[in-house]
Amino acid sequence: MKKYVALFGSCMFLVAFFSMYLMLDQLNLHGSLRSRVSMEMGQTELDFIKDKMENLENDIHHNQQIIDEIRNSVKQIIGGENMSKYIPVQRNMAPLVEEVPDSPVQAKIETGDCSFVERQGEHSDDVQMLDVLDILPFDNPDGGVWKQGFDIRYTERDWDNQPLKVFVVPHSHNDPGWIKTVDRYYLDQTQHILNNMVDKLKVDSRRKFIWAEISFFSMWWDNIDAEKKDAVKKLVENGQLEIVTGGWVMSDEAITHYYAMIDQMIEGHEWIKRNLGIKPRSGWAIDPFGHSPTMAYLLKRMGLQNMVVQRVHYSVKKQLAKEKQLEFMWRQNWDHGASSDMLCHMMPFYSYDVPHTCGPDPKVCCQFDFKRLPGGRVNCPWKVPPVPISDNNVAERAKLLLDQYRKKSKLYRSNIVLIPLGDDFRYDKAIEWDQQYGNYQKLFDYMNSQNWHVEAQFGTLSDYFDAMWDRAGLQPGSPGLGYPVLSGDFFSYADREDHYWSGYYTSRPFYKNLDRVLEAHARAAEIIFSLALAHSRHIDVPSFPAKNAYQMLIGARKSLGLFQHHDAITGTAKDFVVVDYGTRLLRSIMDMKRVMIDSAHFLMSEDKSQYDPETTTTFFDMDEKRINHDALPEKPILQLSQQTKEVVFYNSVAQARHEVVRLRVSSSTVEVQDASGKVIPSQTNLVWTAAQDSSTTEYELVFIVNVPPLGLSKYLIRDAGSEVNNPYNAPSQVTLYNTGSPESSVRGVFHISRPISDNRDFTIENSRLRAKFSGTTGLLQSVTTVKDGKETAMSVEFLMYGTRETKKDKSGAYLFLPDGEAKTLDTNGKAVIRVIRGKILSEVHVLMKHVEHVITLHRSPGIDGWSLEISNVVDIRDQRNRELCMRLKTDIKNSNQFFSDLNGFQMQRRKTLSKLPLQANYYPMSTMAYLQDQDTRMTIHTAQSLGVGSLQEGWLEVMLDRRLNQDDNRGLQQGLLDNKRTPNQFRLLLERRHQRTSSPNGGGGKQTGVDYPSLTSHSVSQLLNHPVYAFIRNKLPGEGPAGDVKLSGSVQPLVKALPCDIHFVNLRTVQAMDAPAPTQESVLLLHRKGFDCSFPANGLSCSTTGGKVQLEDLFRDLDLTDIKATSLSLMYDGQVLNSKSTLQLDPMEINAYRIRLD
User: Fold this and answer.
1) Where is the Glycoside hydrolase family 38 central domain (predicted)?
2) Looking at the domain assignment, is residue 424 inside a domain?
3) Is 59 one of the annotated active-site residues of the chain?
4) How many CB atoms lie within 10 A of CB 549?
5) Annotated active-site residue in 287, 864, 968, 1061
6) Overall domain count for the chain
7) What tens digit of pLDDT does each residue of 852-875 get?
8) Are 485 and 341 in contact (CB under 8 A)?
9) Domain-located, residue 458
């Protein structure tokens, strides 16, 4: 016994000794060094004191851990075990000599740059969709033959002064993947539709047809001969065939990002230019499940003049029809003038099929769908079939049809009526062309021969709109049409009853995430390739693999464009079709990695004349790999030795990045150097293989990189081995809760403590934020902003929705039909909680049954130090008819309003309406959503599109995944049972206003539909959606020719960073007219973002310039020539500029410029 007492006393003496040493060390020995570092970084005296206190607090915590170690060691000795494995290596008892720089920075904002947002009260409109939703009763009475509408009346004298002009527009809606894959649809149906089109339109010049999907059209074009191509061009020239919209696909509008929306439009319009030589004039969006003003804006800025939409809530359609507002000028909520006005025609009835397009009575209209003639595969559900038109019945039939045309026309302001004639994959058989065109021509001829004051004919979409403009005496697209101005969006869509299409916002989130991964890779690859290609031309290095890389870029553009289709990114296709999409996405992701690697290799090579593309083996490896399209990404392990390894980091945004990066390495003792050889602080973490188990061969390395705008920076990493004097690298400290074992342990350099029954709340913090967590659940409870000491309740919960128990209607791929309120995902306090504390980042891991939830707080001087990172890996594969959401409950007084973004382009005010069911109060979120009151705003940023709602005051919830056993009767004919382990990534930003506003919901002035993120918030979104990429060098010096290539320390392509509020959207190399090869021309896309100045621009070292960009300040060491402004999809060129010109960008606008870089 005396032995144990003596041993324990000796240990306590050591503890006291080390405690005194550490305190003196902190207060004296290193004080001057830290003071010097702090002052160099501009840190205030108060911040310096806070850092001191934090260091002392960490030391106290560290000393407690040492006591825990000794206590456990004594127990082990008593038990007869070897004591050595429970003593941590001596080097890890010392704190970092060099603290991580953590000085706050703020953007410099020109005073005038705040005026745009302050003028939002100048916006004017006749119809504000928020007001429409407020006044609608959503009562859905029976409207008679038009079930969701009302009885339409007219007198035959209504057209005495001006005849009714009828344009019947034949069309075939072709989904590039849904029930079949895009290739199978093409082989089975689409090629036959287009072949028949050529043959049948040539029969009669009065016949017309429209086509939208260029993805299919291009496949067909590649398989037809020159004679047929000439015939198609002739049909286009004489106005019989019109290409409408002209995008690669008819994209979804709820959950697509504006980058991908623009990119697929460019791909389509450039194909049309190269092959048909025309410019689409009218938009055609009849199947996307709700409509966004972002699409109207993009079409307007691309040079289109008109557009058509269809899927809008039936109550909204009824209201607009009553007021004759189904045709309107769609104006952006943020537009203070009328420059964004786009003429939009909204179809009034249930569907775009023939029974719902000729007029209000589907029973009558179905009789004029001649594909449904008796003997065919399709019939009329109303039990009255069509009959062929003959001399004996044409008078009665024509009068019946004209009655429907007249009634439909009474819903609009002009005496011109649009009658689409088509449906999904129509006209694939030659006989249908004969049936439809032949019978309708007989009807037209008879109508036009009577004294009925009607002019009926086949037409294209632009024929219809041109007639409207002509009757108004105006040129198409010009102002003064006199139609009502409408602002707002058309979400969420319901087609009947309470069947809201708010489920697809989240369906198959794994692939929504994969879509954004490809989008980020494709954009980053486009930019770095264009830069590398320009520099290779500038110094005449023909070995750069431009042609091969460019073909991969073309493939990625097409893969990304295809997935924007409204049955792809939406998650509403058959399982095997989703696999086809996923395979294409993954192939393109891997190709984009290769393009970036080859381009980075060239740009970083000191002697570019010796550049060798190494076609057999890549010069760099990426820091992430995917083994399959449905697998989570894996990080390769960087095998370290005493010799340094080079890692290059690439920043694809046009502002400098100073942020935390993570790598996987083979050693827990690491040294990191910048390109000059200076050792910089780093942190090593355990890599967990199970709840309590960690790898002994793999570790996570964390450090802060500084990468120039659009640039590359090199860092050096080596294994520090057993060196005890490595004060720049520190292992994190781990605390485990709910493990069932109270014993602490040591794993190499890592100390792991396990408190006994400690359910007290705990915190992690940096100099800006303090996050408090529940000691029972491990979930976030509140966040405090350190500067003002204000605490905001912000509790995280995970909940499950069920689906209705009714036999008929349940949730499916499209619909969200919950069985009531969500139920909390109960962990019974048994979830394993891991708390990791380090000098560069700290984390809390909560391992629940269906969610692996991680919150990270960075100690970084960059933008990543101002928000909490949330990473979830969701797995609900063992569930049945369940939908998992994450809810944030705050004490923000948001008055039942919140804001969600539209396509990453603009914010839209949302009102939670008690008169609507729960599912109606869910909205799409592509990049962010926020709650706010007069003092505080909380924003959740997302790296993938999902559904979002605020169901009670202070709440904001995000749907994470859905698993549903049944079809929801919208044509898919299956449920959603192909769930994966799915990553969700978010950033949680808490901001305090430094200028209070008169409005409780943000912004001064009248309540409009718009609001604006802060500059910090915009930057957080960029951080999340455009990550810094890491390239790991494969060969060391002496390992062949590749090992002898010397790399530059950094590459800085820009003369200086772009202003904070200007986003470098893309630098896209233009394709040659006659080959899949790059030209010397590129397209530069810039977006000036609107931002709210009532929040400080924290974490930004850039400034604003009133929207001015000096062209000569853009590209370093390159000649910028042949500059001209152009429309967003490159169809219309504008002002010619030169390299001395100054670009003037207006807030919210996206601008495009053709440039030549040499």
Assistant:
1) 499-585
2) yes
3) no
4) 25
5) 287
6) 5
7) 999 999 999 999 999 999 999 999
8) yes
9) yes
